[in-house]
Write a sequence for this structure.
């Protein structure tokens, strides 16, 4: 029998991670590979999903990733993750990516944003229930509404593709 967990607020699992980039992560132009930035964002989202769900969670989908500016070798990269929406076992986590030169002489630059869908799993790898989301602010409610729109678009796209395959 599974334990019923009370709804959790976005601040319960909100996280910020930081790292310094290196040449090993760079392409020939001296910019950090997009895949490296994506990996950092995915790791951040994974921590948020684990914290909110209280256990293991796996990446189910990357709904969107926008690269706004390049990340350079030596930049301090900060990722900010927050849960936006939850279903019965799935969660959408938004991640904001910012950079700052290693000497920290300039302000943070917003270089990317991503939306991940995670599914909480049990020890057998099957989906398990997650706590509900209790938004704390108008911003949290807006994030939840936007996540519901993205979810509706994902489901509609999947239905359209399946209809084409069946025709």
């Amino acid at each position: 029998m599974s334990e019923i967990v009370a709804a959790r607020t976005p601040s319960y699992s909100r996280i910020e991670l930081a790292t310094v980039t290196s040449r090993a992560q760079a392409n020939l132009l001296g910019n950090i590979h997009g895949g490296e930035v994506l990996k950092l964002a995915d790791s951040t989202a994974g921590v948020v999903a684990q914290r909110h769900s209280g256990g293991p969670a796996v990446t189910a989908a990357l709904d969107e990733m926008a690269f706004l500016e390049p990340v350079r070798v030596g930049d301090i990269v900060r990722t900010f993750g927050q849960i936006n929406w939850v279903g019965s076992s799935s969660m959408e986590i938004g991640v904001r990516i910012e950079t700052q030169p290693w000497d920290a002489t300039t302000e943070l630059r917003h270089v990317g944003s991503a939306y991940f869908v995670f599914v909480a799993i049990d020890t057998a790898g099957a989906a398990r229930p997650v706590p509900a989301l209790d938004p704390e602010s108008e911003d949290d409610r807006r994030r939840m509404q936007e996540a519901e729109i993205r979810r509706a678009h994902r489901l509609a796209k999947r239905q359209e593709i399946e209809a084409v395959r069946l025709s």
About this structure: The beta strands are 15-20, 57-67, 76-86, 90-100, 109-120. The helical segments are 10-13, 34-53, 138-166. The chain has a mean pLDDT of 94.
